[in-house]
Write a structure and sequence with these properties.
Number of strands: 0
Mean pLDDT: 86
Structural class: mainly alpha
Strand content: under 5%
Number of domains: 2
C-alpha cells in the first residue's frame, strides 16, 4: 500500500506542475522515476516512451499506467493513473470557475504568454535527451528530416511512413542477422 501511495504522490506532483501536455512532462517523469526513485532504468524509460507513444490515449496516463503496473501491478497502475489525472481535473474545474471572469484581464494574458516559452523548453529538453539515447548515427540521421519532408511537402500519410520505417527496420535486422550467421558459419 505504501508503494501505491508513493506512486499516487509522484504522479500527482508531476501532473500538478507540468504544463503543455505529455512531452512537457517527460523530464519530470525521468527525474522522479529514473533518477530519484530508481523505479525503472534509463534504457527501460526510453523503451517505455517508445511503447506509450504508439498506444492510443493520453501520454501522461499511459506513462502512469506503465510505471504503476511495473511497481505495484494493478493497484499501482490505478494509483499512478489517479495521481496523474486528478491535478488536471482540479485545474480545469478551477479554470472553468474563475477564468471566464478574468479571461480578458491583461495580467492573466501576460501570464499565459510567459508560460508558452516554458512549455517549449519543457518539450525541447527531453526531446534532445531522447535523440541522444536513440544512438543516432550519420546513416540514420537522414530519417527524421526525410519523414518531415515527406509529410509536409509531399503530404504523405504519417501512418505510411511509420509502416515503411517498420518494414525498413525489419529488413535491416534480417539482413544484419543473416550476415552475422553467415560470418559465424564461415569461420
Amino acid at each position: 500500500m505504501k508503494k501505491c501511495f508513493q506512486l499516487f504522490l509522484t504522479f500527482f506532483k508531476i501532473g500538478a506542475f507540468t504544463l503543455g501536455g505529455g512531452y512537457a512532462m517527460l523530464s519530470m517523469v525521468e527525474k522522479d522515476i529514473v533518477d530519484r526513485k530508481r523505479w525503472i532504468a534509463c534504457d527501460e524509460f526510453w523503451d517505455m516512451i517508445a511503447i506509450i507513444q504508439s498506444l492510443p490515449g493520453v501520454f501522461a496516463v499511459n506513462s502512469a499506467l506503465y510505471v504503476g503496473h511495473k511497481i505495484a501491478r494493478f493497484k499501482g497502475a490505478i494509483a499512478a493513473m489517479l495521481g496523474a489525472i486528478l491535478p488536471s481535473i482540479i485545474i480545469i474545474l478551477l479554470i472553468a470557475i474563475f477564468f471566464t471572469t478574468y479571461k480578458d484581464n491583461p495580467v492573466v494574458e501576460r501570464i499565459f504568454q510567459g508560460i508558452r516559452p516554458c512549455v517549449v523548453a519543457l518539450i525541447l529538453a527531453p526531446s534532445l535527451r531522447m535523440v541522444k539515447s536513440a544512438h543516432i548515427t550519420w546513416k540514420t540521421a537522414i530519417i527524421p528530416p526525410a519523414a518531415i519532408v515527406l509529410i509536409w511537402w509531399f503530404k504523405v500519410s504519417p501512418a505510411f511512413i511509420i509502416l515503411m520505417a517498420i518494414a525498413g527496420s525489419l529488413t535491416y535486422a534480417l539482413i544484419a542477422n543473416h550476415k552475422l550467421k553467415s560470418n559465424t558459419n564461415g569461420e
